[in-house]
Design a protein that fits this description.
The chain has 288 residues and is an alpha+beta fold. The protein folds into 2 domains: 156 residues, no CATH class; 85 residues, no CATH class. It is 34% helix and 23% strand. The protein has 10 helices and 14 strands. The strands form 5 sheets. The protein has a 3-stranded mixed sheet with strand order 2-1-3. Strands 5-4-14 form a 3-stranded antiparallel sheet. Strand 1 and strand 2 form a beta hairpin. Helix 1 packs across helix 2 and helix 2 crosses helix 9. The chain is globular, with a radius of gyration of 21 Å. This is Amidase enhancer. One of its GO terms (biological process) is sporulation resulting in formation of a cellular spore. InterPro entries: Bact_Sporulation_Assoc, SpoIID/LytB, SpoIID/LytB_N, Spore_II_D_firmicutes. Pfam families: SpoIID.
């Protein structure tokens, strides 16, 4: 029986639980319970792969130094989100709680022990909310080319709100990025527009490297510092403001959660869904 030690930030303590119980809290936190069962199963296998790989790499021995003694924490910025049963009751309400909880538990139970491997090694099961129609190659977002994290079409991305716009004053951009855009004369709207330039694009056409003012930034850095929903963005400069329009939500690599929802709604099972997003990866059972 595998035990997972989870550091829970809002309680400032480590909770100990069985791996499969931990996964119910992860899947419920990471994917809406309203999604089809096969989408939830795909999420369960990805989440199980993450924690099994981490535990096999040393667990608490390689965990975040901010919470020593824990294998993982509940902060998605450090890995995977996790919610307790009490958290889920508060999120879903008492009436929906039992239906949703046992639906998620069914997804975990019916994939028990299943993980993703590539050439016999556990994969890094990257996932995100919405890719906007096509996922990204790993090297276009991070440093390394990973053979199973390839760009693939995502024809059924079911995100109900894929396109959103966020506005920033030039002063806000300067503060976040350390640029000096607000020093450009207000009368020079055209000049303001010229301070943003795409130097390099990814294979899917997203910005990869940008020139902002006299400084270069990766699109990932711009997204992080400005809090944009994704790196699939365009912009428009008007006077002292810049309007960023994003498509999708997340880094765009690996499993697209809304894409998995769409595939499941079109009759594809979780094995097919996982095979689509993790090129060449295979499902194996850790119990064998």
């Amino acid at each position: 029986m595998t035990i997972v030690r989870v550091f829970v930030h809002n309680e400032n303590k480590i909770k100990t639980m069985q791996l499969e119980d931990y996964l119910v809290g992860v899947v419920a936190a990471e994917m809406p319970a309203e999604f089809p069962l096969d989408a939830l199963k795909a999420q369960a296998v990805a989440a199980r792969t993450y924690i099994v790989k981490r535990m096999g790499s040393g667990g608490a021995a390689v965990a975040n130094p901010l919470h020593p003694g824990a294998d993982v924490c509940d902060d998605p910025r450090h890995g995977q989100a996790w919610l307790s049963r009490e958290d889920l009751k508060n999120r879903w309400g008492t009436l929906r709680y039992y239906d949703y909880y046992y639906k998620v538990k069914k997804a975990v139970d019916e994939t028990k022990g299943q993980v993703l491997v590539y050439q016999g090694e556990y994969i890094d099961p990257a996932y995100h909310a919405s890719c906007g129609g096509r996922t990204e190659n790993s090297e276009d977002v991070w440093k390394y080319k990973v053979p199973y994290l390839r760009s693939v079409p995502c024809p059924y991305d079911a995100d109900p709100n894929p396109v959103q716009t966020a506005s920033f004053s030039l002063e806000q951009v300067d503060l976040a990025l350390g640029t000096k855009l607000s020093a450009v004369p207000v009368s020079g709207t055209e000049n303001n527009a010229k301070t943003f330039k795409v130097i390099e694009k990814t294979s899917t056409g997203r910005p990869k490297l940008l020139l902002i003012g006299d400084r270069q930034f990766s699109a990932v850095t711009v997204r992080d510092l400005l809090g944009l929903r994704s790196t699939s963005f365009t912009w428009k400069a008007e006077g002292d403001f810049v309007y960023f329009t994003t498509t999708g939500y997340g880094h765009g690599v690996g499993l697209c959660q809304y894409g998995a929802k769409g595939l499941a709604e079109h009759g594809y099972d979780y094995r097919t869904i996982l095979g689509h997003y993790y090129s060449g990866a295979e499902i194996t059972d850790t119990r064998n």
